[in-house]
Amino acid sequence: MIVPDDEGVNLSRTAKSKNTSLQSADHEVPGMRAESLRNHNLQLLTYRIITGSEVMSRADLAHETGLNRSTVTRLIEHLLDFGIIREGSTRVGPSGRPSIMLTPARRTHGGIGAEVGRDYISACVMDLRGNIIAEQFDQVDVPAYSPQSTLGKLATMVNELTSQIQHSGLSLCGITCGFSGIISSSTSNLHMSPHLGWRNIDLEKHFRSKLHIEVPVDYQNTANLSALAESIARQKTGHELSDFIFISQNSAIGSALVLDGKVSSGLHGWAGEIAHITVSDEDKPCDCGAVGCLDAYIDKANLLERAGLPANAPWEQLFASLHKGNAQVTETVRLCGRYLGRALSTYINLVDVTTIVLGGVLKKLLPYYEDALRDELTRRALCSNWMEIDLQESIVKEGSSLQGAAWNSLLRFLSAPESWQRPTDIALSYFPVDETPTTFID
Asked: What protein family does this chain belong to (predicted)?
């Protein structure tokens, strides 16, 4: 089950888990009004159906959540009426009685994800089944433009996306914009993004004013969104993780901390920033203003420069050199593994989480630096003396942060049943029938 809250998104799936913050309630509890109780249970059923790895019937949901059958039946009718779920195939149970399976509705409600990278902007619309309905991508040298100009371009892209589907009747429920850097959890202010070259930018002011639609807008760190996409993908495939450190690299290093199924951003919004842990006594300057940071050694430009390659070379050139056995490139990647191991050891010692999920280029480079990484973890992580540190590769394809942004928009919408609107008949018939979901899993 997934429960959005003020500090992050709870990704714990099982309703009866002792760690989940959303429990079933058949009877009114002190301080909870009937409407609140109903919304609470609607969320409980919704998240189980939307993110579960198995399709379930009304009876299955009643058994798993502890709600009585009549309550589940009544709430399911509401979810069907508002286009949140749909009835699917029929399954005959052990008793011989047929049961109708319930699945996420297709193309009734859509969440918009948008992202600003160092050299691109992108946006997509995703439905409740995780299908991408429309998307756009534009190559942009973001540091060459002002933040105001880039945010205007992103708003224009979102406007074009909404125009593409304006006659479909699809209900757009929100927008989430992702950025690398430190974003306040209480305001829309981006404090700094070294790789974009941005500081103290009011994202709301420069983005929303250019939008043509009135929907809720959220602003998130891209690594947190990638961790969200990873968690949902693992839930939907039955391989969920409740606690893990997520770290990925494309042009910059991004990381996120998931505790008890929730992406944790800390009190102010910048928890989990592994890129700026000190890993060397050298006074190598980092774009953040400090020296000796992990990012100063293994971000794309610095890594390529140390490997003897042009700072703007594509990643493919690095991999080609590795395949040829280039000694300088091979040693550079191994050294990056050591720096990464030092940063992760500090991280593990502080937060007591021993599962690490690697994404992006870090996943692809793992065979070339894994031994160096594990050596540093063994030497420096305290827990390595009595337990194994689990290294896992991300199961999500590239573009996980954009997927996470769209999911975040949908989950924020699902967390507020009082705001739901019924889909129009057009939305239910506009798109051609296609029961094959978009594949995001590697």
From this structure: Belongs to the ROK (NagC/XylR) family.
Q: How far apart are CA 9 and CA 258, in angstroms?
A: 9
Residue environment code for 369-388, b if the CB has 16+ CB neighbours within 10 A, otherwise e: beebbbebbeebbeebeeee
Which of the four pLDDT bands, split at 50, 70 and 90, describes residue 287?
A: confident
Structure tokens at 182: 């430190």
What token pair was written down for 148? Answer: 């105001």
* pLDDT level of residue 36 (50, 70, 90 thresholds): confident
Q: In this prediction, what percent of the chain has a pLDDT beyond 70?
A: 88
Domain 35-104 CATH class label:
mainly alpha
CATH number of 109-225+399-418: 3.30.420.40
- Arithmetic mean of pLDDT over the chain: 87
Q: What radius of gyration do the chain's Cα atoms show?
A: 23
Answer whether residue 434 shows pLDDT above 60: no
Q: φ and ψ at 125, to 5 degrees?
A: -120, 130
20 three-class SS: coil
Specify the pairing of strand 171-179 against strand 182-183.
Answer: unpaired
| Mean pLDDT of the region 115-139 | 95
pLDDT band at 442 (very low <50, low <70, confident <90, very high): low
**352 class by beta-carbon count within 10 Å (0-12 exposed, 13-18 middle, 19+ buried):** exposed
Could you tell me which residues come within 8 angstroms of residue 144 by beta carbon, excluding any fewer than 6 positions away?
none
Rounded distance, CA 47 to CA 1, Å? 5
CB–CB of 245/353 below 8 Å?
A: yes
* Mean pLDDT value across residues 127-138: 94
Rounded to the nearest 5 degrees, what angle is found at the Cα of 421, between the Cα atoms of 440 and 167?
70
Helix or strand (DSSP H, E) at 173: strand 171-179
Q: How confident is the model at residue 24 (pLDDT cuts 50, 70, 90)?
A: low
**Domain edges within the chain:** 35-104, 109-225+399-418, 240-393
Domain 240-393 has CATH 3.30.420.40: yes
35-104 and 240-393 in the same fold: no
Distance CA 205, CA 219 (A): 12
Amino acid at 296: A
More confident residue, 407 or 9: 407
The Cα–Cα gap between 328 and 284 comes to 20
How far apart are alpha carbons 236 and 395 in whole angstroms?
11
